[in-house]
Amino acid sequence: MNAPMNATIDAVEELMAEDLAAAAPDGLEPLLEAIRKRCGPALRAVVLYGSCRRSADIHDGLVDLMAVVSAYRPVHDSAVAAALNRLLPPNVYYLETGDGRQRLRCKYIIISEAAFKARTHAGLDGYFWARFTQPCRRIWAADPSAERMLASCRARAAARFARSALRLGAGRLDGETFWIRAMRASYGCELRPEPPGAAQRLIERDSDFWNALSARLLPRLDEVQARDGLYDITLRRGQALAGKIEWRARGIWSKTRNILRLLKAAGTFANGIDYLSWKIERHSGVRIEPTERMRRHPRLAAWGLLFRLLKKKAL
User: Fold this and answer.
1) Is the Cα dihedral 69, 70, 71, 77 positive or negative?
2) Which of 103, 148, 177, 183 has the most CB atoms at less than 10 Å from its CB?
3) C-alpha span between 93 and 147 (Å, rounded)
4) Mean pLDDT along residues 16-31
5) Using CA atoms, how far apart are residues 262 and 257, in angstroms rounded to an integer?
6) For 199, how many CA atoms within 13 A lie in the half-sphere containing its CB?
7) Model confidence at 295, in pLDDT bands (50, 70, 90)?
8) Cα 228-230-234 angle, rounded to 5 deg
9) Backbone angles phi, psi at 314, to 5 degrees
10) Residues 284, 288, 289, 293: is their CA dihedral positive or negative?
11) Three-state secondary structure along the chain?
């Protein structure tokens, strides 16, 4: 008989706390100080995620950080920005510190603690629960309760991700293959799907983490039986069809939200309309050269870009 979900969450939460506390790359202090200065007392925690977590030299890439805050209004320069973050989280910002060989570039998101708890626990869009199931590092936390919050949210994100991944189909899988399949399906919901093999490379880089997560989480799910280091997934009648419908709907919904987030980023990034044009070119192959008028009014220009992309059938 499978253990209660609360016991599962406790075991996974312990793993997530250990992962968050692991060593992060050196040299992030200037970015952290800039974020702390911007957010002030509202800042609850800062988390490093993405590829730079594994980078030997963080100066070569674009660092991904998440700032969890107690409320939106104190950390945004306008009520409009705060409202947009509440409506379609997260707001994305660009930050640079240093110069020359010491220049650090960062893309950071701002999310409220309440929204982070809700978005990692439920919802059709996997932006948060798929992203923060993956290994990441706690760079700073305001107090022990903030540390526990991060681990708890990640544990519930993993449970949410696993339940959705089960519906990809029955079979006998090892732990790594289960998460490779899940990550591949998650990539398929993005505007620009990752190249073949990306999911496998991602999981294999942190195989110890994913195998530990599998051992603590999968046997406790109703549809899974652990046998000889493998996991037998048995779906009830109708679950496989429901899973196909769910993942199809997730792809449509996630891509729509990604487009809206890109449009929103035009108003939150420095040189946001140039960033948006570059990002769209990467996603669609269509280049639209920004004008000075578009740069002066980035939020209005973003909707003009959307119309032109629809007209060119780039989306």
Assistant:
1) negative
2) 183
3) 23
4) 95
5) 9
6) 17
7) low
8) 120
9) -80, -15
10) negative
11) CCCCHHHHHHHHHHHHHHHHHCCCCCCCHHHHHHHHHHHHHHEEEEEEECHHHHCCCHHHCEEEEEEEECCCHHHCCCHHHHHHHHHCCCEEEEEEECCHHHCEEEEEEEEEHHHHHHHHHCCCCCHHHHHCCCCCEEEEECCHHHHHHHHHHHHHHHHHHHHHHHCCCCEEECHHHHHHHHHHHHHCCCCCCCCCCHHHHHHHHCHHHHHHHHHHHHHHCCCEEEECCEEEECCCCCHHHHHHHHHHHHHHHHHHHHHHHHHHHCCCCCCHHHHHHHHHHHHHCCCCCCCHHHHHCHHHHHHHHHHHHHHCCCC
- Asked if 294 and 260 touch (Cβ cutoff 8 Å), the reply is no
Burial, 23: exposed, middle or buried (Cβ in 10 Å; 0-12, 13-18, 19+)? exposed
Question: Two tokens at 113?
Answer: 């603690």
**Which tokens go with 85?**
């973050």
Picking from 40, 61, 48, 41, the residue whose alpha carbon sits closest to that of residue 136 is: 48
pTM strictly above 0.85: no
Q: How many other CB atoms are there within 10 angstroms of residue 72's CB atom?
A: 22
Average pLDDT, integer, range 287-292: 71
Nearest alpha carbon to residue 58 among 31, 87, 21: 31
Q: If you search the block for the tokens 């990640």, which residue do you land on?
A: 154
